[in-house]
Amino acid sequence: MFQRLSNGWSLAKQSWRVLMLDKELLVFPVVSGFCCLLVLASFIVPLFATGYVDVVLNDGQISQEESQDPIAYIILFAFYFVNYFVIVFFNSALVACAIIRFKGGDPTVADGFRASMNRLPQIAGWAFLSATVGVILKVIESRSEKVGQIVAGLLGAAWSVT
Fold it and tell me: What is the pLDDT of residues 59-76, one digit of tens each?
């Protein structure tokens, strides 16, 4: 596990160096963040309409009645899916550019977008898997006592490391 963390940290440092060599690639995290804000805004209306904004405003505490409502989980899944899709799409574009740089090339923003567009099915599949895991962890957390919340937290931490 520590080797994986070390490898990840090393890759992050190398990627940062690439980003500093090709500052135009900063467009990927900036646009990704902006798109995630748009996704959040697009889900505010259904959340207000269903009353689930109160859940967010009340420290994420979901009542027993709300935790049984499948609509809440459908909305949550859709939000997770779209957000993960956006994040993975732009991260994939950035990684593709880093790979081009590591191979001695001179990457462009268009190269990154092209690489991500060529991997749309894989990106969608990963977003689907991530959203599914996210919703399952949220179900465990919301329907359980402290032990379930601890287990969900540990599983969530393990999932985010892999």
Answer: 455 555 555 667 778 888
pTM of the shown model: 0.76
Q: Report yes or no: 21 and 101 within 8 Å, Cβ to Cβ.
A: yes
Give the contacts of 83 (CB within 8 A, at least 6 positions apart).
36, 39, 40
Query: pLDDT per residue over 25-44, tens digit each?
Result: 899 999 999 999 999 989 88
Contact present, 144 and 64 (Cβ < 8 Å): no
Whether 143 is covered by a domain: the verdict is yes
Q: How far apart are CA 137 and CA 155, in angstroms?
A: 8
Place of tokens 């900063």: 26
pLDDT beyond 80 at 161: no
Q: Going along 11-138, which residue ranges are E strands?
A: none
Domain hosting 39: range is 13-161
Q: What type of residue sits at position 157? A: A
155 and 140 Cβ atoms separated by less than 8 Å: yes
Residue 5 belongs to some domain of the structure: no
The total number of structural domains in the chain stands at 1
